[in-house]
Fold:
Amino acid sequence: MINNNHERAQTLVEALPYIQKFTGKVVVIKYGGNAMISEELFDAVIEDMIMLQLVGIHAVLVHGGGPEINDMLSKLGIESKFVNGLRYTDKETMDIVQGVLCGKVNKDLVTKIIHKGGSAIGLCGLDGKLFEAEKMKRDDGEDYGLVGEITKVNPMVVEEAIKDGHIPVVATVAYGTDSDTAYNVNADTAAAKLAIALKAEKFILLTNTRGILREKDDENSLIKSLKADDIPSLVSQGIVAEGMLPKVECCADAIKGGVNRTHILDGRIAHSILIELFTNEGAGTMIC
Structure:
């Protein structure tokens, strides 16, 4: 018991300089993947958010909800359609996306935080025109339906929530400026743009991998840290490719926009957020 207590004390001592460094700073966390599916990991993320709040770090949780959207579409007998990896979003699907993300998923997260003793408020990109967007237009000529590209972020509603002592929980549906509609927007991109607008100290992406791997199938080949300038070389070598490429691009954009550090974390590890923020070891890849 004495040894266990000593280890706990050492953990707190190790965390102290990090708490001092980040207290009063904004940390934007994009939450998705396995961490949203596993009940254990779900609870761990919520506990991490509350811990950050208690030590004075202004945590902002941005979420998607792909699995929940797929489940609802399936229940309604609507086929999920993807074009070049993006969900094709017609009017019917957009109504479901908005209802699931802004309603069920968002409010479930808020409720869980409150039940565990934290203070949270649910927001979406429509509130205060937090995310403004226009219909996505790509060079490939494909029609993606009501999928939007964010053109502007108005962070005041999030800033007010932080001032009032809440954890803002943000669903990534955007206000359409070119049409009378809401838009489905990429959650990683929305989170990165919000981090820039909030002048965040850190931007964290929770993923289903350890981070950036030098060898695709070797989890022991984790690249623990790199500079944004290293990214083009990693892309040309094929080390950053496929699903990891857009995530790394979001991190690079956040760095260019003024965010000090970005992290691609292993969301399969319970409390990976705390491990990254408060220990020397970390829990993924840091891009700075």
Remarks:
- The chain has ten helices and 13 strands.
- The radius of gyration is 19 Å.
- The chain has a mean pLDDT of 91.
- Residues 91-115 form the longest helix (25 residues).
